[in-house]
Amino acid sequence: MENHSKPGKGNLGPARKPQGGKRRNFNIYWIYGLLLLILLYLQFTGGFGGVDFVKTTWHDVEGMLKRGDVEKIVVVNGDAPDRSAEIFIKPEKIYENDIYEPLRGTGNREGNKHYVLTFISIETFEKDVRMAQQEAKEADTVGQPEAIKKQIMARPDVELVPETRKSFWENGGVSFLFSLLLPVLFIVLLFRMFSRGMSGGGPGGMFNFGKSKAQLYDKDTKVNTTFKDVAGLDEAKEEIMEIVDFLKNPKRYTSLGGKIPKGALLVGPPGTGKTLLAKAVAGEAQVPFFSLSGSDFVEMFVGVGASRVRDLFRMAKEKAPCIIFIDEIDAIGRARGKNTLTGANDERENTLNQLLTEMDGFASNSGVIILAATNRAEILDKALLRAGRFDRQINVDLPEMEERKAIFQVHMKPLKLAADVDVTFLAKQTPGFSGADIANVCNEAALIAARRKKNQVEKQDFLDAVDRIVGGLERRSKIISAAEKKVISYHEAGHATVSWLLQYAHPLVKVTIVPRGKSLGAAWYLPEERQITTVRQMHDEMVATLAGRASEEVVFGEISTGALNDLEKVTKLCYAMVAYYGMNPEVGTLSYYDSTGESEYSFGKPYSEKTSEMIDVEVRRMVADCYAEAKRILMENREKLDKLAGLLIENEVMFREDVERIFGPRPFDEVPETEVLKDNPDNHAD
């Protein structure tokens, strides 16, 4: 840490260095170099158990040969200028004769030193060796019987072993050094990678892994995103802008005795703009802004998460007033003690405990506001959501039509639009789309227009982009037989027919039998934007969904696997009506839905086996009733169904105008909103 204090009165300032002296920083690579030199020294000096040689003369060698002490002689490079002879003494002779005392007990093992002799001519050396051994044999035969003399003279001579040796570099010295240096370099690199990985590449080496990974945005690294770039979300922006105003003008609020909120939690589905709102806060606020993800606290080492939380708040207090933004806080904020399989005292819970303490603990934490975002608020710990930690929960929901219109206008600014592009029309065509989905539609429309070599993005490009995002990429190359094409056409025509004739089914926009993504056909509907849904509305939606399977049975007398997705939707919706919404008279007005998420870790159901059987029976009966009604409607309109299917087979695509031309105007399009909730005898699933 740098010391920025200035020398002066009452301040000694930093210690002065002696003039002319330089402070030398210790470098760990000196240790690596020293270890390498030690290894090389041990290798070349025989420290690893090699053989050392003592220089000697021919006179001494001759005596060794005559006494019979030589085990073998190795002639090295006999034809080269650096020729020599290595004389190896028998191990037992070394301790019998005192003249071999220099060879005793030296080096790493007993008797690892021997003699070396340099000679001028290999022929002369071999002749002298043979002569010395011959003289020794003759001396031993003096006074011996004839038989003993023959045995002595037949005694084998000392073996002369020729050997060719090269210098260190000629004998693979480079490869030897490489094999010696490679493990050392590997250890050095491993140590460096380990230290960098533990610290994220920052200063401090491996001892820095407990530091916070938060990214700081201040006046030097300012974010360009502002509230003008955030379309829609008016209520959420108002709440967030008030927090920014707290930091800019705190006296306006504290003068009346109020306190600045400590935290705000952004809750909403994915893609609705929670992180974008936080970026806008970073761009609007004139205070330091710390940004990180909930997963940045989690590490494989025990105690690292809590250490990073402490370090984060330490830095924030130094920069106060400031804002901390934690994205995806559910990574560490999950309710404690809910998972009975792993126990309660794990690293994530320790991190959460430290976060709770820092947000509103014994120590004061004034001037630091916490922003967090999640799309799973129901699983967060209750202690994290209480007032004093997150004083406000800001819901960031999917945009309504006017909000979608504003979002389209923001993302259309960089596009070159044609005159036929109507923002209001596109907003109506994209119900249920999030801000991220709308941004994807605009980008995809521009790519489609560029692929078609257009100079402007037209209305049809946007519609094709919506189709591609919702249904997937067209797969016209997929081979479909004529029989399969007919089945798919009647399946999609069944959906279109029943949805057109039912009051609360979603109105049709487009039907196609061109394969898209994993589906062999697709139908687009324009769902009504509702805040609540009645039993009759759900009933009509299920009948329209089952109409595809019903059409196959009515026309062909058999069914196919193409209704898998339809059956899945209907089954889930029926179980929700019976077990969650209390919309079945047999089961009653009960709800077994668990909004806390605690049942996620339990092995039992919140109802008895008898109730479970009753739920299954009622769901099966409701689906059967909806399926029977779909078949009835199709059989009553069989002629019109055939016309729709024939149109699909011929053109592969069908629009709302085609259905209206066959069936006539839809009689339910102008229904007053009060009619939806009217109490009538048909307002049930029976």
Note the overall shape.
elongated
For the biggest sheet, the summary is: 6 strands, mixed
Radius of gyration: 45 Å
Structural class: alpha/beta
Q: Unreliable segments (pLDDT under 50, ≥5 consecutive)?
A: 1-23, 106-111, 199-207, 671-686
Counted by DSSP, the helix tally is 23
| Proportion of residues in helical segments | 40-55%
- Report strand %: 5-15%
Strand order of the largest sheet: 6-8-9-10-7-11
> What is the mean pLDDT?
77
Distance between the termini: 75 Å
DSSP strand count:
14
Describe, in plain words, how this protein is organized in 3D:
Residues 1-23, 106-111, 199-207 and 671-686 have low confidence and may be disordered. Helix content is 45%, strand content 10%. The strands form three sheets. It has a six-stranded mixed beta sheet with strand order 6-8-9-10-7-11. Helix 18 (482-501) packs antiparallel against helix 19 (535-556) and helix 20 crosses helix 21. It is of the alpha/beta class and 686 residues long. It is elongated, with a radius of gyration of 45 Å. The longest helix has 28 residues, at 609-636. It starts with 28 loop residues before the first helix and ends in a 23-residue tail after the last helix.
